[in-house]
Design goal:
mainly alpha
């Protein structure tokens, strides 16, 4: 699966290069293949970044249109396509308007204060598997909320660097910093996030009283988890760790792995907007002309 993960060092970039070359010759099928190839990771990074399906869809489509519109300007002699693509993605995400969720979550103290205020409730008796899925949904929702307490740059560095395991040399190119600087920023972000998790979250420290199954009923009552329309545990086939070179049950080599593996066990959502997006792209005369798609 590593050849499908654009953040992995063994990613097969030759496929991108071939598709870009064919697109610039006016091949519409190659354009469709490229969009299908890159859209899933952009969307899943956006979903972790903004914690909103709507915002993730909006930013993903905006990035894809921007990438295709500027494809004729891509210079393969200066960088690999994935570096160029994710540099554009990172910049777009950092510049995106402040979201409703970002306005409501200001810092770790207020976030965990809100979680502590959620009453512990017993879930109604029902199908055991359904109840377990609701608890998982509550867990992922809570952990996604924790990420929102980081500033945007920290959040992106953690999502790409820790959850999707980007090679630090590639990360440096994408964020336009040195690999050493990227590692320093990632280390500081881990420290900020994990310190709060260690002090508050029962998943990583049994001394903390907060438990996902005890809070799930309250999450549902507050509207944070919708049993009929789950944000995370719907429309997915695999977990994030399946797309990396690591295994979730590996012997942890450092204390950070305990925390990181919790995030890597989150669903990787399916996403395909290629038909709508291609219709929008092909309806734009400027883009068609730039790519000789007439």
């Amino acid at each position: 699966m590593t050849k499908e993960n654009p953040f992995h060092k063994n990613y097969d970039s030759s496929i991108d290069a071939k598709l870009v070359c064919e697109i610039l010759k006016g091949d519409k099928k190659s354009l469709e293949k490229l969009v299908k190839r890159i859209q899933g990771y952009i969307f899943n990074v956006a979903l972790k970044m903004f914690n909103s399906i709507e915002d993730a869809e909006d930013t993903t489509q905006e990035v894809l249109v921007k990438v295709i519109a500027n494809l004729s300007k891509y210079d393969s002699t200066k960088s690999q396509f994935r570096t160029w693509l994710y540099r554009m993605t990172v910049n777009h995400f950092l510049d995106f308007k402040k979201t409703k969720y970002e306005k409501s979550i200001t810092n770790f103290s207020s976030f965990f204060g809100a979680i502590e205020d959620v009453p512990e409730m017993d879930l109604n008796d029902g199908d055991e598997n359904a109840l377990l899925l609701l608890v998982e949904e509550a867990k992922v929702s809570c952990m996604a909320g924790m990420l929102m307490c980081l500033d945007r740059e920290q959040r992106l560095i953690y999502i790409i660097g820790e959850i999707f395991e980007i090679d630090h040399n590639i990360a440096g190119e994408i964020f336009q910093i040195t690999p050493a600087n990227f590692r320093q920023k990632l280390s500081r972000t881990r420290k900020d996030l994990y310190q709060w998790m260690n002090n508050k979250c029962g998943l990583v420290n049994s001394a903390n009283k907060c438990r996902c199954h005890k809070k799930t009923g309250g999450f549902i009552a507050n509207g944070w988890v919708n049993p009929d329309n789950m944000k995370w545990h719907s429309d997915y086939k695999q977990k994030i760790y399946k797309l990396s070179g690591e295994k979730i049950d590996q012997l942890v080599s450092a204390w950070e792995d305990v925390y990181a593996n919790l995030y890597k066990d989150h669903p990787f959502k399916n996403y395909d907007t290629s038909e709508t997006l291609l219709s929008k792209i092909l309806g734009n005369k400027t883009i068609r002309d730039n790519l000789n798609l007439n």
